Amino acid sequence: MTLITLKQMEAIYWIVQLGTFERAAARLNTTQSAISKRVQELEAMTGLAVFDRNQRGAKLTEKGEHLLALGQEMLALHDRVLDLKSSEETPAHRLRLGVTELSAMTWFPRLISKIRDTFPRVTLEPYVGTSRTLENMLRDSELDLIVVPDVFVGEDITYVRLADVSNVWMARPGLVETREALTLEELAGHPAVLQGSQSGTGLFYNRWMRSQGLVFDQALYSDNLMAILGLTVAGVGISYLPRQCFRPLVDEGKLVVIPTRPVLPPIPYSAGYRNDRPTAFITAITDLMCDTCDFSRQLQS
Prior knowledge:
Layout: H1 6-18, H2 21-27, H3 32-46, H4 62-83, E1 93-99, H5 101-104, H6 108-118, E2 122-128, H7 131-139, E3 145-149, E4 157-165, E5 167-171, E6 182-183, H8 184-187, E7 192-195, H9 200-212, E8 219-222, H10 225-233, E9 239-242, H11 247-251, E10 256-258, E11 260-261, E12 267-274, H12 280-292
Parallel strand pairs: 1-2, 1-3, 6-11, 7-8
Antiparallel strand pairs: 3-12, 4-12, 5-9, 5-10
Helix pairs in contact: 1-2, 1-3, 1-4, 2-3, 6-12
Pfam family, one: HTH_1
Family: Belongs to the LysR transcriptional regulatory family.
Protein name: DNA-binding transcriptional LysR family regulator
C-alpha cells in the first residue's frame, strides 16, 4: 500500500502559502519539477484534483482545501513528534484500567490519586467488573491493564503478583454453632451463598472445594460481592469473605468468623496486561500497583 508522505503535504502547504510552484520549490530547497511530481503523485493516490487547472495561479479546489487542512494536522503532528526529544513535558497517556469489586472498594481510589500525581496528563478510564469480563476485555483490547485473582491461564497475558487475600467463612451471629472448628463435612450441612463462575474468587474456591470433596446441599450463587455480603449479613447462608476487609462488620457484631479445618487457602491477586502491548508506561503503572495494593481496609484515600 502506497502512503501519503509528509513531502507531498509540505509541497501543497508551501505552494498555497507562497503562491507558486517555483517559490515553494525554493523554500523546500528542491526543483519546480520535483514539486510538481509530488502534487501529481498525491492526486493520483487520492483520486482528487488538488489545484484548479482552469484558474490562473495556485488555486485549490474545494477538495484540495479539505486536503490541505488535513495535511496541516499531519505536519503539526510531525513537529510534535520531533519536539519530544527536547521536551521535558510529561507525555499524555490514556489508561483503560479494569478492577474487580474488592479492589474498587479498598485500594483503587488511592491508586488513582497516585497515577494522577505521577502522570498529570493521563486520561483514566476505570472499569469495574467480574474477573471473567475483565479478562475478556483485556484480550479484546478494550482494556490496557486489569487486576484480578490469578486464576486464568494464557501465554498471551503477563501477570504480575500484587498480593494474597485471606478469606474465611462468615455468617450472621447465631446461624452456626462455632464453639470449635468445623470440618468441611459439617460445614456442608449449612446453606451457603457462594461466588459464581464469572468471579475469579469463585473459580478459585470452586476448584478448591471440588478437590476437598466439599459440596453444599443448599447453595445460592452470585457474581456480585456486595450482594453476597448483604445476603450473608441477612442470614441467608454462610459465605467466604475477605477477613481483613470485612473485619469491621465482625467487630460490630453483624458477622462472625466460622473456624474450619482445613482453612481456606489465600487468593492470589495479580495485575495483567497483554504480552504484545508492553510499554514503559504500563510497567510504571504496575510498579505503582505493587506499592499501593492493600486489601485490608475499605475506601482508602
